[in-house]
Each structure stands twice: as C-alpha cells, then as structure tokens.
Amino acid sequence: MTENEDILVSVRNGVGILTLNRPKAINSLNDVMVAGIAQALDAWEHDDSVTTVLLTGAGERGLCAGGDVVALYHSARQGGAAARKFWWDEYLLNAHIGRYPKPYVSLMDGIVMGGGVGVGAHGNVRVVTEKTKMGMPEVGIGFIPDVGGTYLLSRAPGRLGLHAALTGAPFTGADAIAMGFADHYVPHDRLADFAEAVVTDGHDDALRSYAEEPPASDLAAQRDWIDACYAGDTVADILTDLRGHDDPAARAAADLIATRSPIALAVTLTAVRRAAHLHSLEEVLVQEFRVSVASVKSHDFVEGIRAQLVDKDRNPQWSPAALELCDDAAVDAYFASADPDLTFS
C-alpha cells in the first residue's frame, strides 16, 4: 500500500490507522486522499489481521475542513470534469464507510466540515470532543450539503438538520451527538490516550476507559423555536417565521441565512426534505451527486468560492440575487439525472 504526504496509512496491533496529513489546509480532502482511504478500506475489509479502522487528522486544528474546494473552483471554470470525478470517488467512499463491516473509529476533534463529515460521521464509532466544530457550510459558497450530509441532516431530531443546513453554522460535539452525527464524547486532552488505547486494548475497552457523558446540547435546548420556525414551505416562509420570533437566536439565524446563496438555500431545503424519504445512504448520495454536478455549472458555486476563498473579498454577488427569483423549475433542474448517475457496484 503506497503512502504519500497527504494520507498516512499504517497498521498497528490489528488496527488500520488512517491519518489525514495536510495540516496546513486543515486536512482538506483531495483526490489522492480519497483514493488512499478507499484503497486501504478495500484491503482491510478482507484482511482478517485487521480488526478495526482508526481515522484521525494531523495537526491541532481539526480532522478535516472539507473538500479542496479551490481545486473544485478551478475545475468548474474548466467545465467541471475533474470535480465530477472527485465527487464520484468521494461519494463511493462515503457509502463504503457507511456500510463498513468492521469498527470504524473516527476522531472528529476540532474542525470537521463538509467532506470531513463525509469521512467521519458515517462511521460506526464516531468520537467528538469539546473542541469539535462541526458543520455543513456549503450554502455559504453557493453549494449544497453533500457527502451524505443531507442523509444525516434529514434524520436529525425535529428540524435541527434544516437549521444546520440553511444557516451553514457550525455546531458543537455535544450538538453532533444530539443530532445523530456522532456517538461518543472524549475530552480533547484525553484523545491521544484514547487513540492509543484503541490500538493497544481495542475500541470497546478504550471507550469504557475514556468516553464521558457529553455536555447538554445547546441546539437541542432550542428545539421549540427551531421546530416552529423551520416548518414553512419555502425558505422565504422560514425567514419570515424566524424574523417574527421572540428569541434573539431565531433572528440571528435569519440574518445569517440572508447572506447565503438564494438558489443554494432553495435547493438545500428541497434536498434535505427529499432525503428524509429516501431509504438508504446510497440513495441519498445518488441524489447529492445529481445536485453537485448541477451546482458545478451554476454561477453561484464559482462566485461563492471566489468570494470566500480565492479573492477573499467576502462579498459574493449571487445570481439569482433573491429567493423570490428562484422558481420551482430552477430548483428541480438540480435534481435531474447526472447522466450518468452515481452507481454502486
């Protein structure tokens, strides 16, 4: 199995260790990393000497800040072929993680955004800390939550998932557990010892020794206004309800949503609601692949990345510029066949 500077692959005491190794980029995923994880998981699945997989990220800032969206930006400007291939491979990997037959322990410490959720939150042993800063911030760059994110968002209690999807705001490790994005809470300063214990003692013993009761979830405590305000048929209805609510947090959510790409918001609302009626992670990933392939051809995807990460003027000029200009036909077009659609062999 080949190693390279972006993904480190090793086996210790029957534990296959995957280390995302781009700390300067907060371990943002590229093609090489996706391929490396996929190759390792394929090999280990059929290797009886490997009993457990452990996913971690190099550096102090987080597991993974997402996909390398600047590379996707350049692909979009050249027709989108490279972006399409990246998403195809990435979503196949997300599905494989979701059905992996061995314990897959993901250490979701620090920043875990977008693609980081895809490689971490579909595992079957998902660990967070008090430093976890998780989120699906795609609407801020004119994109729509992907990597199986809409599967998780659509299954969060009440309408917490819609709140996270439409604001794009990060949430805590405790929130992640409450929302179904994680399972276990280990304090940050004990995480290295926990990881070592996974290798030496097995993940069950490690959890018994190091996992603690998580703090209360702030988001779960706000279910009353979130469930009420995100019930509207359209994003415009949701904004009206948020702005009319007494809770200052509701009005703050409205202000944040109002900065996001209107078409991305409209598509995200539809995507999350449709995902709730799909039966498997694979079915949701097929839908997300369609939406992502459509997004790469959109104005807002290129413009959002330009404003946030290329020119960094933080002043995207969205088109359409307002929610009322995003008609049903424009939204529905995002869900048309990607021709060919994502398939699972």
Automatic annotation (TrEMBL):
Keyword terms of this UniProt record: Hydrolase
The answer to whether UniProt assigns keyword Hydrolase to this entry is yes
Q: Which Gene3D superfamilies match?
A: 2-enoyl-CoA Hydratase, Chain A, domain 1 (3.90.226.10)
Signal peptide positions on this chain: none
Task: Specify the enzyme's EC class, one word.
Answer: hydrolase
Domain Enoyl-CoA hydratase/isomerase, residue spans: 15-335
The molecular function terms of the Gene Ontology recorded here are:
3-hydroxyisobutyryl-CoA hydrolase activity
Q: Which GO terms describe its biological process?
A: L-valine catabolic process
User: Pfam families this protein is in?
Assistant: ECH_2
Question: Which reaction(s) does its UniProt entry say it catalyses?
Answer: 3-hydroxy-2-methylpropanoyl-CoA + H2O = 3-hydroxy-2-methylpropanoate + CoA + H(+)
Q: Which CDD domains does this UniProt record tie to the protein?
A: crotonase-like
Q: Which GO terms describe its cellular component?
A: cytosol
**EC number(s) for this protein?**
3.1.2.4
Q: What is this protein called?
A: 3-hydroxyisobutyryl-CoA hydrolase
User: What are the top taxonomic ranks of the organism?
Assistant: Bacteria, Bacillati, Actinomycetota, Actinomycetes, Mycobacteriales
